[in-house]
């Protein structure tokens, strides 16, 4: 392992869970909903929460803006695919997701196929309570309103990429649009979701 890889593995970039809870978010609850129910609204909430932070981490690690965004999309696809491996008693959602991101970054440095997420050994977490479940339902309702406000084409490309597990190249073939256009639509769609959600949360 190179010195750069060691630095990536040892860096503490995940957000503090207490501050997440104070802000009214609960990524662990969202990830449980993805794991147990394949809940799309919860997955998009995870994307909103972690995509900007992952991008900042990867750019600090030396990736250019476009490359960092591509890795973030790959990481979040891995979160969707590998959610069944998540155990809240062994890791919080933030630790689990950031571990996947660091593995993807190291893999990019090594130029090898993506590895499976490592088994995590973390302090035991706590089970969600009724108040947290209610908060998740409220967030999911806001997200549904934001999705409904999007154009059908924009919403469809997000569904194809993140819920139907289609690679960007396949979406390009199906729609006849250039690959760069597909990636741009996905980024713009996610940016709009974040803006609309923030607006809907305002009192």
Describe the fold and architecture:
With 203 residues, this protein is mostly helical. The chain is built from ten helices and no strands. Helix 3 crosses helix 4 (40-60), helix 5 packs across helix 6 and helix 7 crosses helix 10 (179-201). The longest helix is centred in the last third of the chain and has 23 residues, at 179-201. The model is unreliable at 1-24 (pLDDT under 50).
Give a brief outline of the structure:
The chain is mainly alpha-helical and 203 residues long.
Strand content: under 5%
Mean pLDDT rating: 74
Number of DSSP strand runs = 0
**Alpha-beta content class:** mainly alpha
Main sheet overview: none
Helix count, DSSP H or I runs of 4 or more residues: 10
Oligomer: single chain
Give me the secondary-structure topology.
Blueprint: H1 3-10, H2 17-22, H3 27-37, H4 40-60, H5 65-82, H6 93-110, H7 130-148, H8 152-162, H9 168-175, H10 179-201
Helix pairs in contact: 3-4, 4-5, 4-7, 5-6, 7-10, 8-10, 9-10
Structure keywords:
single chain, 203 residues, mainly alpha, 10 helices, globular, disordered N terminus
């Amino acid at each position: 392992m190179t010195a750069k890889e060691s630095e990536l593995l040892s860096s503490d970039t995940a957000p503090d869970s207490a501050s997440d809870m104070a802000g009214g978010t609960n990524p662990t609850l969202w990830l449980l909903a993805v794991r147990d129910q394949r809940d799309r609204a919860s997955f998009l909430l995870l994307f909103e929460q972690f995509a900007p932070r992952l991008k900042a981490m990867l750019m600090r690690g030396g990736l250019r803006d476009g490359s960092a965004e591509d890795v973030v999309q790959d990481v979040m696809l891995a979160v969707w695919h590998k959610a069944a491996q998540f155990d809240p008693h062994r890791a919080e959602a933030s630790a689990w997701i950031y571990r996947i991101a660091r593995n993807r970054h190291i893999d990019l440095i090594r130029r090898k196929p993506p590895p499976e997420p490592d088994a995590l050994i973390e302090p035991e977490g706590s089970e969600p309570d009724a108040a947290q479940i209610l908060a998740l339902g409220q967030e999911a309702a806001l997200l549904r309103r934001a999705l409904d406000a999007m154009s059908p084409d924009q919403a469809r490309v997000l569904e194809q990429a993140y819920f139907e597990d289609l690679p960007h190249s396949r979406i390009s073939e199906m729609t006849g649009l250039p690959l760069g256009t597909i990636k741009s639509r996905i980024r713009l769609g996610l940016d709009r979701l974040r803006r609309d959600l923030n607006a809907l949360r305002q009192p």
